[in-house]
Amino acid sequence: MKNCTDMELIDKAQSGDHLSFAALADRHYMTVYRYAFRWCRSQEDAEDITQEVFIKLAGKINLFDKRSLFTTWLYRITANCAKDYTRKNNRWTKNKLPELPDNEVTASPNPGPENNVIARNILDVIGKLPKKQKEAVLLVYAEGMNHKEAAQIIGCAETTVSWRLFQAKRQLKKVLS
Amino acid sequence: MKPADNDIKKAFRQLEIPEPSETAKNKAVRKATDEFVKINITGAKKTKGFQEFLRRMGKIFQTLITMKGEPIMTQRQFATLGIMVIAFGLILSIGPQVFYSSKTVVDKAGPQSHQTAEIDRELPDGRQPGNAKNDKPETTVLPSKEQTAAQKTKDFLADTKTEMHKNVPGEMRQEEPLAVMQAPAPSSEKAAGKGYTAMLSEMASGSVRGRRALESDDGYGYPSLEYYQDAGRDKFAVITLNPVRLAGEEPVSTFSIDVDTASYAFVRRQLNSGLLPQKDAVRVEELINYFDYDYPVPQDRVQPFQPTVALYPTPWNSNTKLLHIGIKGYDIVPTGKPRSNLVFLLDISGSMNSPDKLPLLKNSFAMLVDSLSPDDTVAIVVYAGASGTVLEPTKVKEKGKILASLDKLSAGGSTAGGEGIRLAYTLAEMNFDEEAVNRVILATDGDFNVGITNQNELKSFIERKRATGIFLSVLGFGQGNYNDALMQALAQNGNGNAAYIDNLNEARKVLVDEACSTLFTIAKDVKIQIEFNPARVHDYRLIGYETRLLKREDFNNDKVDAGDVGSGHTVTAIYEITPVESGKKLIDDLRYRKTPQKPKVDAGDEYAFLKIRYKLPGEDASKLIAIPVTTEQEFDTIAKTPEDMRFAAAVAAFGQVLRNAQYTGDFSYDDILQLAEPARGRDQFGYRTEFLNLVRLAKTAKAM
Predict the structure, then answer these.
(1) pLDDT single digits (tens) B555-575
(2) Less CB within 10 Å around the terminal CB: N or C of chain B?
(3) Top CATH class, B334-519
């Protein structure tokens, strides 16, 4: 099963083989987790989101029609789950936790060893962008996709992606300058 | 200046992503797989799809309300908007009590059909969307009423659960251990945490530890994989009872003999677990034929069997009589046993991974190997997701080698039964020995889901192979997902017999004690035709053999396949007949037609004329045995009837009572006990005593 391609695993999973499904989930765990972590910047939340993604995948795998790449499709679920998660989390935590102070040092829970303050600032601003812009930024700059691919995942027009990126960069400029 | 794209990319590169914990990963994969199994088993997907539908609608509402930021409405949003409009119309048309504007002009049929279509689309192939109708229309509540929607969804889920579809694809399946280990993520906890897939593979090899690892977890309340047990998905061919026929109108009855005993073992298993078997699981002839009756044994192989005929009063109906036809096959003396060329075709798919399947199978076959003689050959073919030869044809002299390869088998994967059968036949052909018994012994729970899965295709394949002289025996294992219908079909078409192995005793009975009759055929295509004398018999009814009926013209047609008799087999068939002089007939006489014409020959004391056709193994022309059934063979009271026949009558009664007692009146389990108890005879192996116990169990057993 290790040597099976994604498509083979999907075929088997769609015919009900749960082991193939497990292998598929196992194989793509890191991809999803990485995106989720970049989205929420917390290991715990990222793990939660990732779990949510695969539970969703279990319910939807039969709907995957193989016209697009599996990863594209998986990214779409991931992106949606991430957005849903933030929405849900906002609902829960808004009244309970005070907003974190706008401190550049604490805003990133895991500042890492880098001395590049600009990079950290950029990430912090991205973290606070509106969800749709953040999504576009993550897909294009972190996952290295072109606008077309990102548009496919988000389910919008290519120009929309470009527009959102433009807005995001404008926001970055405003904050950084 | 705006930050350059490269700066952003660099920033992301500098973001350090911590390794996810192995525990979290395992948990996620496990939960998702659980969900997957759950959806594939219960068909919960429908509800999922519906929730998804609601969610999407909610999203569109949201989009509509906020409508900001996005310059373009994309195609997708446009499509969903369409759906929303339709759904809105649906709400209007079905909820007049909520929305007063119920007089809206929206066409009712339109939106509803659209909604169904939406749900249908969410279903995986092959699942019948028919019960989407069950879905109460009110479930289309607005997203704000999540609470009630959730409740209703739950109800709906419960509904769908009860209605299991036959072709639900995924039951618990395990895969070969080597196939699973994936786990790319290096982790500090790696030493402690065990990969999910590794656990699965441990499960597959039957390790309790592996199972426990899966069960014990965070107490999230998710059922573990083991929780999903098949139940009530046993498949049986539907049986329509043989009707009562007028001897004056249809004096001839033809059927093929049947030596299978699978039905009895299955019924026993159900009763032992306190349940009444489903109606179609009870094949009365197989119940009767489970027992060995002491009929006279034929003298030689030329006429391999001798019919025994008797008439005696029906225990459950004082107005009728039973016509008992018994056949005992010539018994090959054990020293004269021909060599055997056996191919074991074993199902080791994931569905076989339960104590009453694969482990029992291994023990059973080990027993069989023990009883073979050193010159016999055995080959082992297994099938799961794919099929393969585990053991090339090997002489039983090397018993250790055979047993070792049996022992190594473990269950996992899906079931490519069709491919396995092909491979097994190829092996048997390769090693074909004209002098020997060439037989494929298939052991399975009957769940073929990969390769040739079409029953008819399988049947015709086996039918063609039958001509080459290779016979097929089918051994059924397990319960819950037992596909009896297919196994019967295979055995009947493959010149073989089917037995059901529910415990090691049964395995011994079938594979060791009766190995001779199971393995060595002494006559094939045995057909029985009986012509009733309308001057004596008013009407008649064949008890059982519903799946074995033949057309009248088939009797003389040697091309038509029928059942086979093995060495020492006994076969019994019972007719219930109403004599002409009986006071109460099952069918009234006609008012406008004359009573039956006089018989052509003067056969005053003949009730019927029995003809049996059979072929010797390896011959293509059939031979005929014919004897009349006369008053000489009649016993006037049950007490005078021989033990064996009384016992057979009791078994027949039992089978019929289990099948709703259409013709047995108020004959009760106690009556059966009374009839069977004194007729137990010597009962060397205790089978008849066991039968009595089953009758007692049936008294208290519940329906499913």
Answers:
(1) 888 888 888 888 878 889 999
(2) N
(3) alpha beta
CA distances A36 to A148, B102, B212, B600, Å, are 21, 46, 31, 92
The three-class DSSP label of residue A159 is: helix
| Burial classification of residue B185, based on how many CB atoms lie within 10 Å of its CB (0-12 exposed, 13-18 middle, 19 or more buried) | middle
What's the gap between Cα B195 and its chain centre?
36
B180 and A1 in contact by Cβ < 8 A?
yes
CATH class of the domain whose range is B245-332+522-582+604-700: mainly beta
Strand partners, B594: none
- Closest-CA distance, B4 to chain A, in angstroms, reads 9
Please state the ipTM of this predicted complex.
0.83
Find all residues with CB under 8 Å of B473, minimum gap 6, and list them. B439, B440, B441, B442, B491, B496, B497, B498, B499, B518, B519
CA distance A165 to A167: 5
* Extents of the domains making up chain B: 5-96, 100-215, 245-332+522-582+604-700, 334-519
Kind and range of the H or E element at B28? helix B22-42
Are residues A16 and B40, on separate chains, in Cβ contact within 8 Å?
Answer: yes
Using an 8 Å CB-CB cutoff, list chain B residues near A122: 3, 7-8, 11
Residues 294-323 of B with CB under 8 A from A: none
Mean pLDDT of B497-501: 83
SS3 B483: strand
Q: Which residues pair with B381 in a beta bridge?
A: B345, B389
| pTM exceeds 0.80, yes or no | no
Distances in Å between the Cα of A144 and the Cα atoms of A138, B5, B560 are: 8, 11, 69
For A126, phi then psi, to 5°, come to -60, -40
Render pLDDT for B455-472 as a digit per residue (tens, 0 to 9). Answer: 677 777 777 777 777 888
Contact status of B184 with chain A (Cβ, < 8 Å): yes
